[in-house]
Design goal:
There is one protein chain. The chain is α+β, with helices and mostly antiparallel strands. Among the domains are: 2-310, Beta-galactosidase, Chain A, domain 5 (Distorted Sandwich), CATH 2.70.98.60; 645-738, Sandwich (Immunoglobulin-like), CATH 2.60.40.1180. A hairpin with a 3-residue loop joins strand 9 and strand 10. The longest helix has 23 residues, at 617-639. It binds (2R,3S,4R,5S)-2-(hydroxymethyl)piperidine-3,4,5-triol.
Amino acid sequence: MKKRLLTISATIFACGLNVLGQDAVRSVDASQQWYLNAGESTYVVGINERHMLQSLYWGPALPADARLPQAHSSGEWASFDTPANTTALEYPAWGEGLFAEPALKVDSPNGDRTLVLVYESAKVSKSELEIVLHDTVQPIKVHLFYEVFPQGILSRWSRIENAGSQTFVVEQAASAVWNLPAAEDYSLSWLTGQWAGEWQLHSELIQAGSHVMESRRGSTGHQANPWFAIGREHATTEDNGPVWFGELGWSGSWRMNVEGTSQNKVRVTAGYNPFDFAYVLEPGKSLETPKFYAGYTSHGQGEASRILHRFQLAEILPTHPNPKPRPVIYNSWEATEFAVNEAGQISLAEKAAKLGVERFVVDDGWFGQRLTDKAGLGDWYVNKTKFPNGLKPLIDRVHALGMDFGLWVEPEMVNPDSDLYRAHPDWAMHFPDRNRTEARNQLVLNLAREDVKEYVFNFLDRLVTENDIAFLKWDYNRNWSEPGWSEASGSANGSAEVAKQKEIYVRYVENLYDILAKLRAKHPKLEIESCSGGSGRVDLGILRYTDEVWTSDNTDALDRLAIQYGFTHAYAPETMAAWVTDVPNFLNRRSIPLQFRFLSAMQGALGIGGNLNKWTTDDMALATKLTAFYKDIRTTVQHGNLYRLQSPLKSESSHVEYVAQDGSQAVLFSYLRSQHFGMALPKVQLKGLEPKASYQVRALDAGKYKGEAVVSGAVLMGEGINLGLAGDYDSTAVVLERLETRR
Ligand code: DGJ
C-alpha cells in the first residue's frame, strides 16, 4: 500500500468529496465503521462484537451525518449454518464452518487448512482505506484495500501476507466479496460468447445457489467476461431502478461467483480462479490479488454502463484521464490474409489514404516464414521475399500519404515450425513426456519464465526502435492446454513442487503486464490493441496497457450490432474497434449495403478492412463521405454518454445515441434490418438532451429525416424524430448541434 496512508487518529477523518459534497472515505471510530462515498453511492463496513469485518451497506449515497447500527454477527440458522454463513463477512476465509464461497483458503505447514480473520488495524487517506485482518492462530495477515473514484466506482483488492517463518500455500484468493442488501427479486445480467460471437447479454432471476462465470483458459476468454450487473427484477430497466455492477481487472484465469443463499442474501466473489491454482507463500512473502471494481446507481443499466465508460476513460486507459480519440484505421487482414508484400500493401495504403484513413496497419504474414498459419510465429524478422528492403519503404510511403503505421504481432506464441521453437522447445508451456496440444498449429510460450519474458520484450523493443511504428495489434490466438513449468519448482519436491508450478497462472500475467508497461514507458507514443482472435482478452487489467480491443473477428455489420450492444454494457465505445469489410461477409455470406456497414462500425473506433482494390468508384466516394462524417462526430461517440435507445436483440430496428460530455453535440444512429407490411418506423425518442435547448439538426441523408431544421430538446425527447427508413438493411444518422438554452 502506498506510503501516503495515515493511521486513523481522529473520530472522523477524510477528504475528497462525492456527489453529496461528502468525504470519499470517513471513519467513525466509536462504532468502528468506515463509510466510502463513490459518486452517487455509499459503501459501509464495520467491525462486529467478534472482531470480524462485516459489510453493512451498499446503495444510494448516505448523508454525512448518517450512522448505521453497530455491526453484529448473525446467529446460527438451526445447527446447519454457523454465523460464518449467516453473517455478511467482508472477506470470509474458509473456517468456522463456512460453506459459502470463501474469499481465501490457505494450507498451513501443520496441516491446519482453515483461517479465522479478525480485525487488526485500519488506515485512511484521501480516497483510500486499508484494513488489516489477521488469523487467530496462524501468522497470516490479510490487507484489504479500498480506493474510491469520483466517477462512482469503488476498487477493492487484497494482499495475503505470510508474517511467520514457515511456508504456506494459498489455494484460493479472491479480490473481494460484494454483499448486496437482502432481497428476493434480484436479476443478474452477464456476458458470454465464443469466437465470432462474443458479448451475448443474458439475464436471469438470482435463485439460491451459485452462478459461476469463469475462465480456466489462462486468459480472460471469449466465453465469459468478468463483468456483472445485478438489478431488481421488477424495478430495473435501461433507464431506471437500482443496479449493482462490477468488473474484475485480470487477464488470466478468473472466477466470478454470484451466490444466492437460502436466506435471500446475494454475494459476488471474484478473483483468481481456484481451479488448478496455488501460490507458495514463503516467509515474509505476499500475494496481491487483482482489482475488483464495482459501483451502484439508481438510474438503470444505461447509467451503470455510462459510469463504467467514464471511469475507464478517466482512470484506466493508458492515456487517462485524457485519452486521444482513436484514429480511423485501415487493416489488411480480410483483404490479403497472409499474402502481404510491399507492392500490395502500398497499393492498399494509397487507396486508404484517399478515404481519409489516418493509420495503416499491416496484419499477419510479414515476418519469418509465415506463408500460412502453419509456420513462423516466434521468428520476428521481416520476410525478405515479401519485403526485400525491410518495412522501411512501406512505412515511408504510408507516412508520405499522411498516415501513421501499425503492425500485427503475436508475441506470446510459437509455431513448432519456427527457428525459435527449434532452438528453444522448452520455452513452450508443457508437461514432461506429454503431447503438446496444438491449436491453430501453435503453442503458448511460457511467459512466466524470465528468459522468455526477456526475449519477448527485446524483440518488440527492437522492432519498435528500428521501425517507425505507432501502433501494435497484439494478437493471442489460443488458450492454454498443458500449463506446466517444471523449472519453477527449484529444489522443492512432491506437493511443494507442483504448487510452485501452479504459480504460472499469476506470474505469466504479471510478466505480460510488465512487458507492456516497459514497452510503453520506453516508447511513449506507441499505442497497442488487445486482440485475441477478437475479444478473447478484454478486461480492466489489459486495458491499463492497451488503448483499444479488437471486438470480434465477426465483421458482419448485422451481427456486430448485437455484439457491440453487449460490449458497451461493460466497456467504453472508445475501446471498441470495428471495421467496414467486404460483402458477402466471409463468415455468413450476408450482403449488407456499404452505408449500413459504415454506420455499424461507427458505433466505436472506426476502421476499414475491405479489399479496396475491388471497391467501385461509387463505393470509394461514399466511403470518403462517411469517413469525413465520422471524424466530425467521433469525439462524441468515443468520449460521450451512450444511450442504447433500442436493442438490436428485440426488434427489426435499433437505435443508439451518443451525447457529448459537455452536451454540445449528440448523434443518433438508426438501423432497420427488415421492414414488414409497409409499416413505417416508429418515431425515435432521444435521451440525455437539455429540454430547453434548441438543436440544429444535421441529417446524414436529407431524404430520410422528416422534420424541422431546428428542434427543441423537449420535442426531440418527448415527440421524437421521424426517420423514413424502409426495405432491408436501411440506416441513417442524425447529428444534433446545441444552439442555445432558453432560460
Ligand atoms: C486473429 C485476429 O482477430 C484477426 O483480426 C487477424 O489479425 C488474425 N488473427 C491474423 O492471424
